[in-house]
Design goal:
The chain is an alpha/beta fold and 244 residues long. The chain has seven helices and 15 strands. β1, α1 and β2 form a beta-alpha-beta unit. The radius of gyration is 24 Å and the shape is elongated.
Length: 244
Amino acid sequence: MLDAVIVDDEIKALQSLSWELTNFSDEITVSASFTNPFEALDYLSDHTPDCLFLDIEMPTMDGFQFIQKLTNKNFPVVITTAYNQYAIKALKNEAIDYLLKPIDTDDLQATISKIKKYNAKNFTAEKLEQILINFNARSLNKKITLNTDGKLLFLESDEILYAESDGNYSTIYLTDGQKIVLTKKLKEVNSLLPSDAFFRIHNSYIINLNKIKEFLKTDGYVVLKSNHKIPVSRQKKSDFLDML
C-alpha cells in the first residue's frame, strides 16, 4: 500500500484528486493533504511518504520553489497542474511524472505503476547500502563511510586532510587533491570521523591530527603537511594542545 501526500492550494482540486485515488484504494491511500505549502513543508520534514502529488500554480509558493525548499527528498514527486507548459521543467526538477488536470483515471493508474517501480528500485538500493555499511562496521579494518552524489565512499583516515563547513554543507579535502561535498553540517561530519585522529579545531574546521606539520602559536594557526593553514579558535586552543 502506497502512502500519498497531496499539496494543492485549490480545495476542490485537492478533493478531486483524493476522490480519484479512492478508485485505487487497494494500492494507495492519502495520509495527509494540504492547501498551505508551508504547513506541508513542516509535515514533510518529519514524515516520508511513498509519493507526493504537488500542484504548480500556488500563490504563496509555486511547486518548483516548494521542491527546492524540501529538506527531505526521499520520495518521488508527481506534478499536477492545469497547464501543460510545465512538463519539461517538471522533469528537470526530478519529478517522477506529470499529470494534467482534470486528471484522467488511466493516466493516474500509469503514474501509480511508476511510483511502485521507483520505490521498489530505491528500496533495493537502500537495502544494499545498509549491507555495505554494516559490513564495514564489522570489518577489522573499519573505514570512514561517506554518502555523496548517490554513492558510498569508504575512506581510510590517512586519506583525509581536513573538513570545512559551508553552512548546511561540508567539504572534505583529501590528500590526493580531491574535494568531497556533503549535504551535512560539520557537526554531523565530526560524528563520522574517529575522535582519536580528528579534532574540531574551529567552528568551521576539523583537521586530521596526523597531518599537522606546524602550530604557529602567535598567529593561532596550524599548518598541515599539505601546507594548508587552518585557524585555531581561542575556545579550542587548550583542548587542542591537550590532544597533542
